[in-house]
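Design a sequence for this backbone.
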């Protein structure tokens, strides 16, 4: 039943979205009865408003609607209002283009873009706007459907704009969104069991680490005494040499225990993760199991060390332990890197949804005659913050193939960009409230249906948080 209702509303949204297009094709369909004399003569509402700017005041919505209704008495009120709003936006947009020094020919091309994108185009520099104007209207519409910063990045790129595959960009973002919002299901029983295992492994890890500190002091002291006995075959020195072997064995055993418990702890944490994919979890668990097996095999060699074991043999075992220790450190960094990547990806998706939401809030506020200049400027900054975060996120993904330390540096930069975005967001919310747009902000959903299909809803919570 719910699916049928949802399907009905999706179809309803699609039909409503087709109304403006129908206006151009079948003007009579927008009237409540027989076509008015003006419509019958082929006079469009849009053309009438533009040609009679002295009589039709688009700066005052009520007066504009009244004037339009007087000329077109059978025109639906809703559509008269829509035409007045769009006429006002077009007038303001032309004024903005004029300020940028865009010529009349280019202005005539750019005003064909849907009015909801005017603000995005107006935020570009003159050279970028002129470059957009060289494109076909359908291509311009595709490009300006992207975020502000994505548009700026594309128009500044020297490559052909006609060759830009916006559908691929949009599909990539949708695929990224689905993956980022994926939640790996872990049963409550598994979470509880893993939490207990993590606690136990951590206690053993801390115990081995603390014991290693003590053993390390004894080992350092034994090494110092051993050096003093070089070339000395006295009974005391023989005893010191044997003690060094015992100290070495104890040190290596504690180091091996610490390594094993650290890997176990990481494996249990990964098993409880809802951020990583099943494939990532399986790979990490498999790699962790191999590392534990390697160290346990080395422990057998460590256990074979005795008072008579040569220094060279001990050094050989120690080198193997150190090599495994390095591998474990890389393993832990890889897991941290994967975790950080998932966190950044999820936040990126949420901020993308917020930017889209704020664009619609700005549009609604403008329709209601509210002051939006400052909010428009801040939204530019907000978009740049998100673009910076995404750029560094992509660099982090590339770095993961070779250096997880570098990857985490890029992810850290993304997080800083998120902080900047949050600061900008607070400023936007403050100005929205100040201009009386709080109700619009609260009533504007996170995302709206796209022209093809419906976007999966992303809940971002209270925008002011």
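Sequence:
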């Amino acid at each position: 039943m719910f699916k049928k209702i949802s399907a009905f509303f999706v179809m309803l949204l699609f039909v409503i979205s087709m109304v403006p297009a129908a206006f151009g094709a079948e003007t009579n369909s927008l009237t409540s009865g027989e076509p008015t004399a003006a419509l019958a003569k082929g006079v469009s509402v849009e053309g009438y408003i533009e040609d009679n700017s002295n009589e039709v005041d688009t700066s005052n919505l009520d007066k504009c609607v009244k004037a339009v209704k007087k000329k077109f008495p059978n025109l639906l009120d809703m559509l008269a209002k829509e035409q007045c709003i769009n006429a006002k936006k077009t007038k303001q947009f032309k004024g903005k283009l004029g300020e940028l020094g865009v010529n009349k020919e280019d202005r005539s091309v750019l005003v064909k873009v849907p009015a909801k994108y005017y603000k995005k185009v107006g935020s570009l520099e003159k050279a970028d706007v002129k470059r957009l104007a060289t494109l076909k209207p359908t291509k311009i519409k595709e490009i300006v459907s992207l975020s502000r910063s994505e548009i700026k990045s594309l128009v500044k790129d020297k490559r052909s704009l006609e060759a830009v595959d916006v559908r691929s960009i949009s599909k990539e973002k949708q695929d990224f969104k689905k993956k980022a919002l994926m939640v790996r299901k872990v049963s409550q029983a598994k979470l509880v069991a893993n939490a207990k295992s993590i606690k136990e492994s951590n206690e053993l890890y801390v115990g081995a680490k603390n014991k290693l500190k003590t053993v390390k002091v004894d080992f350092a002291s034994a090494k110092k005494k051993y050096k003093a006995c070089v070339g000395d075959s006295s009974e005391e020195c023989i005893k010191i040499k044997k003690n060094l072997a015992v100290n070495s064995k104890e040190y290596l055993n504690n180091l091996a225990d610490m390594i094993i418990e650290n890997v176990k702890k990481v494996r249990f944490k990964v098993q409880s993760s809802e951020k990583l994919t099943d494939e990532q979890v399986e790979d990490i668990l498999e790699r962790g199991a191999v590392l534990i097996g390697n160290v346990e095999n080395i422990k057998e060699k460590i256990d074979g060390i005795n008072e008579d074991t040569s220094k060279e043999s001990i050094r050989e075992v120690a080198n193997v332990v150190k090599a495994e220790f390095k591998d474990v450190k890389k393993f832990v960094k890889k897991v941290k890197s994967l975790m950080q990547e998932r966190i950044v990806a999820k936040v990126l998706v949420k901020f993308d949804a917020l930017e889209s939401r704020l664009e619609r809030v700005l549009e609604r506020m403008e329709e209601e005659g509210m002051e939006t200049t400052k909010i428009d400027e801040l939204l530019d900054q907000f978009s740049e913050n998100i673009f910076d975060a995404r750029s560094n996120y992509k660099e982090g993904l590339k770095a993961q193939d070779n250096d997880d330390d570098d990857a985490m540096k890029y992810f850290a930069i993304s997080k800083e960009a998120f902080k900047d975005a949050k600061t900008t967001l607070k400023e936007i919310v403050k100005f929205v409230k100040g201009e009386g747009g709080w109700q619009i902000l609260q009533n504007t959903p996170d995302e709206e249906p796209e022209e093809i299909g419906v976007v999966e809803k992303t809940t971002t919570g209270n925008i002011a948080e």
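Residues 340-443 form one domain.
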